[in-house]
C-alpha cells in the first residue's frame, strides 16, 4: 500500500494556457506547491447540485424562465397597459389576476420538482467515504461533497465510487479491480479495471496530465510521470460499485459535475410535438383575429366621434377622434385579451402529466420477469405516439430475446447439427408457452454473492439516486445478491453433439494415429480453446468471488509430450517449428502418452474414476457448474457455455493468465499477452496468448463471417494446407449460408501462429500505440488490423436468438394501422430475411427485392430497375406488395446525395424495408433521411448502444431495457421492456393522447372566441367605447375559473373507443396519422361555429330586452349565463365519454358560476367601480324572462352542431364511431360485427376501412358485458388475434 507523504515543493512547468485549452493537471492534494494548489482549487468540488433554484433566487429566476414564453410576456404587457389611465378598460388590480394565477401555478409545479431534486442531492452529498487526511495522517470518513480533485480515496467491496478516480492500488495481487456499472449503464456484469502500470510501491507524488472533462464513458486519455500512458481501464467512474475486491485506492481526477456520470445525466428529454407546432400557428391566427377586431373597434370609435353632433353627455375633451381611436385600440386589446388562451398552455402541461401517469400505471406494460414498467422520459410528446407513420426497429434484443443459445457449429468443414440440443430448445419454448415455472427463473439462478467473506458495511445506491432523481431516501440492502447475466438454464445447459463427443473421446483411442483424424482433432481443440478464452468473461463462484484456482498437476507425463503431439500430428505449420527430436514410433508414443491420462481425460479435476465426455461426474467431485460467468454480451456467454459443455472450461481469469481445462489435458495455465477488444469497425475481437502446450504465440480471433472469411488465408510456408484450407472455407461458407437461412447468428473462429520475431516487431508498435496520448484509438485500431491477417479458419458457430413473444402479432397490427416498419440490423442478409419472415414483416405473398451492389453506378442502375419493377407490379392486379432488402455496402451508396432520392422513392413504394449489415451511423442516416425528406412522423426502437444515434434522431425514440445495458433507455423518450408493448403504446395510448389533446385544444379556442365575440358585438351598440356589459370580475373569471375544469377533464378522460377495440382494429390508428382530429379546416370550422353561437347568444337577449328599462349589467346577465350553458353543453355534445365525474364537474362549474354571481350581486357595493352590480343578478334570476331567454338561446346556439353530428353519424359515420358502437353491442352481435369488419377489410383493395351500409343499423343495447366480449376473440378471425 502507498505511503502518502507530501511531495517536495517545486516549481510548476505547466502553463495556464495549455491547462485551459487542452488538458488538466492533477496532483496530490497533499502538495505544498502553491501554484498547483491553486490549480486544484479551480476544479469543481464533488458536491452535486441538480436543482435550478436557491432560497433567494427562486422568485427572480423562475420569473425570468417563465418570461421566455411569449404568451406570458403578452399578458404581463396587457396587465401593465391596463394601469395607463387613457387606455385602461377596468380595474387595474383585476387585470393582473389571470397572469398572476398562471405564473403561480407554474411556479408551484417547478418548486415541487426542484424540492424533490434537493432532497435527492442532499442524500447523495451526505454519503460517506474514506479520504486520506493530511492532519491525521490516516484515512478518515468524509462526506461525498467534501471530496476534491487530488484527494486519495479508499473504498471497500460493495461501496459506490464517489468521483472519477485513477486506480493506484488494489488488494488483488494482480492489480485488478472489478466494478459493476449498473448504476451507470444498466449492465450488471462485472468489468475489470487495473492499476496504473509501473507505479512505485511507495510515495505517490507524480503529476497526472489528462484530458478535460467530457461525457465519453468509453474513453480516458492521459499520462503520468515519464509518459506512462493512462487509459479507460485505469479509471473508476462515479456511481459504479466495487465488486469482488477487498480494497482499492485511487486519486480523484474529476469530481462533481465534471464526472462522466454527471456529464451524461441530461435528465428528462424535451421535444416539441407536431401538435404543439400546429397549436403555435393557430395562436398566431388568433393574434391576427384579435388585431382585426381591435382595429375595427378603433376605426369605428373614431368615425363615431367624428359623426357625433350632440356631445352634451360627453365630458369635454380636446382629444382628436384619430387619437381617441388609437387609445381605443389598446383598450380593446385589454378587453378582448382572453381571445389568446392564457390558460391553455398550463392546461396542456397538466393534461400531459396525467396522460403520462396513466401510461406509466398501465399494468399491461409491467414486466414481472424483469420487475420493470414503462418509463416516460420525454414529458411533452405523448400525442406524437398517436401520429407515427414509420417505425425503425433494431433486430437483436428488440425483435428477439437477445438470449443467445449455442445451437450448432461447423469445425474444419464438418457440420455438427446438435439435434438433441435443438430438441431441448423446443422443450423450453413449449414450456414457456405453457408458463412452466422452471423457464421463468431469474437470470441469476446461479447467484454470485460478491465478497462473501469481506466486510461490506455500506450499501449500494440506485441509478436514480446517483443521477439526481431519487424516488426515496432508502437504499437497497447490501445483503441482496448480485445477479449474473446471461446464465439462465436455457443458455447454460447445452447438450453436446454425440458425433463431436465421439471425436474428442478419440484422444484416448489408437484411431488418433490416423493423420487426417489428428489434423481434424487439432482443429477441434483449437476451436474450443478459442471459444473458451477469446472473450473478456469474468469467472466467479459462490464461495470464491474471483475464481482463479491454482493449477493442478496435469495427469499427463509432461506438457512436452503434448507439445510433441501437436508438432507431430498437428497442422503442417507445426512441423516447420523447431521441436525436440524423438525416435519413438507414433504408436508407442501414443500408448505411453495416454496410459496415465486416460483415467482423468475429461474430468474437471484429477480423479481416479474414469469419466468420459458426455457423462456426469460423481456427486462427490467438485462440479464445474458452480462456476459463474460474468459476460459483457450474450454472444460471449453462449460461446463460453458451449465450450464448457465439451469440458473445455474457462476456470479462472487474472490480468496476465487464464486457467483453462481441456479434455484429456487437465487444467492448463494460458498466459494472456493481449486482448484486442471488439469494435464496430473491425467487427471482431482477438486475444494473443502464449500457448500452454507449444509455447508459441497464438492469436485467436472471432468475429463476423463477412470479415473473418476475407482474412482467412493460407499461412505462409504451409502450401500443403492450401487445398485443405480451401475446402474448409468452401464448406464453412455453405454451412454459414444454411445457418443464416435458419435465422441463426453466425460467428467465425480463426487463429494465427506468430513467429517470435514477427511478434516482437508487432509488440513494439503495439506498445507505442498503448502509451500514446494523441490518436491512441486510431493507433490501436491500426495495430489490431495489422495483426489480424492471414488467419487460419477453424470453424463457425450458429447461435439462436429467439423472437420475443407476440412480435409477429405486433408487427402485423402496426402494418394494418398504416405504419411502415423497417428493420435495421447488423446481421447478414440471410439471417435478416429469415427473421423478417418469422415476425411476419415479410409475407409469403410479398415479392422480395434485394439490392446488393459493389459500385455506385451499379447501385443507381439497380435502384431504377427495382423502381420500374415496383411500378409494373402496382399497375398489375393481384400484387400484394414488395419488401426491399438492402445490404450495408449498397446502403452506403444509396445514402449519397445523388442517389438518396431514387432510394427513397423505391423504399416509399415498398411495404417493408430490411437494411442488413448496417452500422449505427447508417441507421441514424436512414431515419433522418425518411424523416426530413418525406416529412413523416418517425419512431426508432432499439436496445443497445449501437441504436442510440437512431433513437435520438427519430421524432419518438423508444429504448428497450433488455440484455445490453441501459444506453438506449437513457437516450430514449420512452422505455419499455418488450417489443409487444409497442402495440398498445401506439394503438391505444397514442390514439387516446392525440385525440384527447387535439379536441381539448380546439375546445379552448372555441370557448375563448365565442365569449370574446360577445364583447365585440356589444361595441356596435356603445359607440365602440370599449365598454362591456358585465362586471370586470365575471369577465376575468369566466375563462379562468368558471369554464377551466371541464376542458381538463375532457383532455384527460375522454375515450372515443375502448382499448380492446383499438387493439383488435388497428386501422382506427390511421385517423391520428392523418391528423383528422386537428386539421386547419377543423380549426376554421370551429371558429365559424363559435362565431354563429356568439351571434345567437348576443342578439336573442338583445331583442328580448329591447325597449325595456334593463340597464347594461342587466342586459349582460342573461348573456353570460347563456354563454356558460352553451359552452358546457357544447362539450357534452363533443364528448365521447360521460361518467359521473363528468356530470359532477359540469354541474359544479354551472353552480359555481351562479353562486358566485348571486353572492357577488348581494354583497358587492363598491368592488367593481364605476359600475355597481348590487342586486342586478339577484333581480334577473328572480324573473322568468331570464330563464326563458337562457333556454331559447342555448337551444338555438347548439342546434346546428347537434343536427350536424346526427346527420353525419347517420349518413357517413366515421370509423371510430362504428367501433365505439361495437363496444356497446352484446357479445353475440359484437362477434358478428367484428367478423364482418374483418371480411370487409380483406376484400378492400385500398386496404382502408370500407364498411357496408348494413353497419349503419347497429342497435345499442342497455347493457355491456366486457368479460363475455373477451371470450369471443377466438371466433373473430385474425383481426382478433
Automatic annotation (TrEMBL):
Task: Give the organism the record lists.
Answer: Oncorhynchus mykiss
The coenzyme or cofactor needed here is: Mg(2+)
Per the record, the major location class is: membrane
State one molecular function term (GO): ATPase-coupled intramembrane lipid transporter activity
Q: How does it sit in the membrane?
A: Multi-pass membrane protein
Q: Which UniProt keywords apply?
A: ATP-binding, Endoplasmic reticulum, Magnesium, Membrane, Metal-binding, Nucleotide-binding, Translocase, Transmembrane, Transmembrane helix
UniProt name for this protein: Phospholipid-transporting ATPase
InterPro entries to which the protein is assigned, alphabetical: ATPase_P-typ_cyto_dom_N (IPR023299), ATPase_P-typ_P_site (IPR018303), ATPase_P-typ_TM_dom_sf (IPR023298), ATPase_P-typ_transduc_dom_A_sf (IPR008250), HAD-like_sf (IPR036412), HAD_sf (IPR023214), P-type_ATPase_IV (IPR006539), P-type_ATPase_N (IPR032631)
Amino acid at each position: 500500500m502507498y505511503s502518502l507523504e507530501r511531495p517536495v515543493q517545486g516549481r510548476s512547468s505547466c502553463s495556464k494556457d495549455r491547462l485551459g485549452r487542452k488538458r488538466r493537471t492533477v496532483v496530490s492534494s497533499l502538495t505544498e506547491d502553491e501554484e498547483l494548489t491553486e490549480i486544484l482549487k479551480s476544479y469543481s468540488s464533488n458536491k452535486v447540485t441538480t436543482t435550478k433554484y436557491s432560497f433567494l433566487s427562486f422568485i427572480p429566476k423562475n420569473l425570468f424562465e417563465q418570461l421566455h414564453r411569449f404568451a406570458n410576456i403578452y399578458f404581463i404587457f396587457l396587465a401593465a397597459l391596463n394601469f395607463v389611465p387613457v387606455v385602461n378598460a377596468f380595474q387595474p388590480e383585476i387585470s393582473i389576476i389571470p397572469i398572476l394565477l398562471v405564473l403561480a401555478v407554474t411556479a408551484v409545479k417547478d418548486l415541487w420538482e426542484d424540492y424533490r431534486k434537493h432532497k435527492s442531492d442532499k442524500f447523495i452529498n451526505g454519503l460517506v467515504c474514506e479520504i486520506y487526511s493530511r492532519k491525521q495522517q490516516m484515512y478518515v470518513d468524509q462526506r461525498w461533497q467534501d471530496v476534491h480533485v487530488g484527494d486519495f480515496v479508499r473504498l471497500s467491496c460493495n461501496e459506490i465510487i464517489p468521483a472519477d478516480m485513477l486506480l493506484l492500488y488494489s488488494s488483488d495481487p494482480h492489480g485488478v479491480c472489478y466494478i459493476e456499472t449498473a448504476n451507470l449503464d444498466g449492465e450488471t456484469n462485472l468489468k475489470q479495471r487495473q492499476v496504473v502500470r509501473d507505479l512505485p510501491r511507495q510515495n505517490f507524488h507524480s503529476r497526472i496530465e489528462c484530458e478535460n472533462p467530457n461525457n465519453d464513458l468509453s474513453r480516458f486519455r492521459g499520462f503520468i510521470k515519464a509518459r506512462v500512458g493512462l487509459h479507460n481501464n485505469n479509471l473508476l467512474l462515479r456511481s459504479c460499485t466495487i465488486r469482488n475486491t477487498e480494497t482499492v485506492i485511487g486519486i480523484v481526477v474529476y469530481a462533481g459535475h465534471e464526472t462522466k456520470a454527471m456529464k451524461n445525466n441530461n435528465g428528462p428529454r424535451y421535444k416539441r410535438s407536431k401538435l404543439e407546432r400546429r397549436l403555435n400557428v393557430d395562436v398566431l391566427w388568433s393574434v391576427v383575429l384579435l388585431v382585426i377586431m381591435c382595429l375595427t373597434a378603433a376605426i369605428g370609435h373614431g368615425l363615431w366621434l367624428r359623426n357625433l353632433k350632440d356631445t352634451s353627455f360627453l365630458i369635454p375633451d380636446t382629444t382628436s377622434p384619430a387619437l381617441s381611436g388609437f387609445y381605443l385600440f389598446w383598450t380593446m386589446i385589454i378587453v378582448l385579451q382572453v381571445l389568446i388562451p392564457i390558460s391553455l398552455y398550463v392546461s396542456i402541461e397538466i393534461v400531459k402529466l396525467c396522460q403520462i401517469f396513466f401510461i406509466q400505471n398501465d399494468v399491461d406494460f409491467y414486466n414481472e420477469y424483469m420487475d420493470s414498467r414503462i418509463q416516460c422520459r420525454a414529458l411533452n410528446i405523448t400525442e406524437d405516439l398517436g401520429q407515427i407513420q414509420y417505425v425503425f426497429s433494431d433486430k437483436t434484443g428488440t425483435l428477439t430475446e437477445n438470449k443467445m443459445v449455442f445451437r450448432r457449429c461447423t469445425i474444419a468443414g464438418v457440420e455438427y447439427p446438435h439435434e438433441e440440443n435443438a430438441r431441448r430448445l423446443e422443450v423450453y419454448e413449449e414450456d414457456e408457452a405453457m408458463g412452466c415455472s422452471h423457464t421463468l427463473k431469474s437470470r441469476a439462478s446461479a447467484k454470485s454473492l460478491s465478497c462473501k467473506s469481506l466486510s461490506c458495511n455500506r450499501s449500494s445506491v440506485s441509478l436514480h439516486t446517483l443521477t439526481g432523481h431519487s424516488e426515496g431516501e432508502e437504499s437497497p440492502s447490501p445483503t441482496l445478491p448480485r445477479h449474473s447475466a446471461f446464465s439462465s438454464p436455457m443458455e447454460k445447459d447445452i447438450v453436446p453433439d454425440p458425433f463431436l463427443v465421439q471425436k474428442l473421446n478419440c484422444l484416448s483411442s489408437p484411431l488418433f494415429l490416423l493423420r487426417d483424424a489428428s489434423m481434424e482433432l487439432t482443429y477441434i481443440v483449437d476451436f474450443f480453446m478459442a471459444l473458451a478464452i477469446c472473450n473478456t468473461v469474468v469467472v466467479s463462484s459462490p464461495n470464491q468471488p474471483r475464481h482463479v484456482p491454482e493449477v493442478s498437476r496435469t495427469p499427463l507425463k509432461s506438457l512436452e509430450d503434448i507439445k510433441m503431439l501437436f508438432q507431430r500430428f498437428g497442422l503442417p505449420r507445426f512441423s516447420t517449428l523447431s521441436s525436440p527430436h524423438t525416435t519413438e514410433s507414433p504408436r508407442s508414443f501414443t500408448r505411453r502418452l495416454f496410459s496415465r491420462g486416460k483415467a482423468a481425460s475429461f474430468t474437471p479435476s484429477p480423479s481416479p474414476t474414469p469419466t468420459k465426455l458426455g457423462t456426469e461426474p460423481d456427486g462427490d467431485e467438485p462440479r464445474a457448474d458452480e462456476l459463474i460467468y460474468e459476460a459483457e454480451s450474450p454472444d460471449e456467454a453462449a460461446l463460453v457455455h458451449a465450450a464448457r459443455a465439451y469440458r473445455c472450461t474457462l476456470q479462472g481469469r487474472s490480468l496476465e493468465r487464464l486457467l483453462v481445462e481441456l479434455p484429456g489435458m487437465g487444467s492448463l495455465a494460458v498466459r494472456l499477452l493481449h486482448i484486442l477488444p471488439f469494435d464496430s469497425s473491425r467487427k471482431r475481437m482477438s486475444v494473443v496468448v502464449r500457448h500452454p502446450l507449444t509455447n508459441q504465440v497464438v492469436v485467436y480471433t472471432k468475429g463476423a463471417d463477412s470479415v473473418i472469411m476475407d482474412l482467412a488465408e493460407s499461412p505462409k510456408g504451409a502450401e500443403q494446407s492450401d487445398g485443405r484450407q480451401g475446402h474448409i472455407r468452401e464448406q464453412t461458407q455453405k454451412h454459414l449460408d444454411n445457418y443464416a437461412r435458419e435465422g441463426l447468428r453466425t460467428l467465425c473462429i480463426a487463429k494465427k501462429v506468430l513467429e517470435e520475431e514477427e511478434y516482437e516487431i508487432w509488440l513494439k508498435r503495439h506498445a507505442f500505440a498503448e502509451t500514446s496520448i494523441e490518436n491512441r484509438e486510431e493507433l490501436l485500431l491500426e495495430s489490431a488490423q495489422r495483426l489480424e491477417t492471414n488467419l487460419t479458419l477453424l470453424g463457425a458457430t450458429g447461435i439462436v436468438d429467439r423472437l420475443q413473444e407476440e412480435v409477429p402479432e405486433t408487427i402485423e397490427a402496426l402494418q394494418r394501422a398504416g405504419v411502415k416498419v423497417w428493420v435495421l440490423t447488423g446481421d447478414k442478409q440471410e439471417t435478416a430475411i429469415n427473421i423478417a419472415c418469422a415476425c411476419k414483416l415479410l409475407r409469403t405473398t410479398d415479392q422480395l427485392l434485394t439490392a446488393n451492389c459493389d459500385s455506385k453506378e451499379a447501385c443507381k442502375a439497380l435502384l431504377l430497375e427495382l423502381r420500374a419493377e415496383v411500378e409494373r407490379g402496382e399497375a398489375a392486379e393481384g400484387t400484394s406488395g414488395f419488401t426491399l432488402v438492402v445490404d450495408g455496402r449498397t446502403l452506403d451508396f444509396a445514402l449519397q446525395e445523388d442517389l438518396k432520392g431514387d432510394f427513397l422513392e423505391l423504399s416509399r413504394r415498398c411495404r417493408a424495408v430490411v437494411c442488413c449489415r448496417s452500422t449505427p451511423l447508417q441507421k441514424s442516416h436512414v431515419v433522418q433521411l425518411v424523416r426530413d425528406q418525406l416529412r413523416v412522423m418517425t419512431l426508432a426502437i432499439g436496445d443497445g448502444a449501437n441504436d442510440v444515434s437512431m433513437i435520438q434522431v427519430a421524432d419518438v425514440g423508444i429504448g428497450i431495457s433488455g440484455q445490453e445495458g441501459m444506453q438506449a433507455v437513457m437516450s430514449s423518450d420512452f422505455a419499455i421492456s418488450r417489443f409487444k408493448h409497442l402495440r398498445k403504446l401506439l394503438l391505444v395510448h397514442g390514439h387516446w393522447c392525440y385525440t384527447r389533446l387535439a379536441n381539448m385544444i380546439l375546445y379552448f379556442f372555441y370557448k375563448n372566441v365565442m365569449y370574446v365575440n360577445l364583447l365585440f358585438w356589444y361595441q356596435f351598440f356603445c359607440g365602440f367605447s370599449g365598454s362591456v356589459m358585465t362586471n370586470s370580475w365575471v369577465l376575468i373569471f369566466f375563462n379562468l375559473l368558471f369554464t377551466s375544469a371541464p376542458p381538463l377533464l375532457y383532455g384527460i378522460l375522454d375515450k372515443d373507443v375502448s382499448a380492446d377495440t383499438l387493439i383488435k382494429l388497428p386501422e382506427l390508428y390511421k385517423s391520428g396519422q392523418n391528423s383528422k382530429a386537428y386539421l386547419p379546416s377543423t380549426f376554421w370550422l370551429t371558429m365559424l361555429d363559435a362565431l354563429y353561437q356568439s351571434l345567437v347568444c348576443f342578439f336573442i337577449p338583445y331583442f328580448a330586452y329591447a325597449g325595456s328599462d334593463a340597464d347594461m349589467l342587466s342586459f349582460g346577465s342573461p348573456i353570460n349565463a347563456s354563454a356558460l350553458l352553451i359552452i358546457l353543453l357544447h362539450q357534452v355534445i363533443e364528448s365521447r365519454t360521460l361518467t359521473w365525474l363528468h356530470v359532477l364537474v359540469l354541474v359544479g362549474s354551472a353552480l359555481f358560476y351562479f353562486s358566485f354571481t348571486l353572492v357577488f350581486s348581494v354583497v358587492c357595493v363598491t368592488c367593481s367601480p364605476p359600475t355597481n352590480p348590487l342586486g342586478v343578478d339577484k333581480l334577473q334570476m328572480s324573473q322568468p324572462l331570464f330563464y326563458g331567454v337562457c333556454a331559447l338561446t342555448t337551444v338555438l346556439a347548439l342546434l346546428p352542431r347537434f343536427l350536424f353530428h346526427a346527420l353525419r353519424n347517420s349518413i357517413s359515420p366515421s370509423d371510430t364511431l362504428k367501433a365505439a358502437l361495437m363496444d356497446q353491442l352484446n357479445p353475440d352481435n359484437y362477434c358478428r360485427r367484428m367478423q364482418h369488419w374483418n371480411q370487409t377489410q380483406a376484400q378492400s383493395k385500398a386496404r382502408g376501412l370500407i364498411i357496408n351500409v348494413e353497419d349503419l343499423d347497429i342497435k345499442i343495447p342497455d347493457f355491456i358485458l366486457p368479460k363475455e366480449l373477451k371470450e369471443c376473440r377466438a371466433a373473430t378471425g385474425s383481426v382478433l388475434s
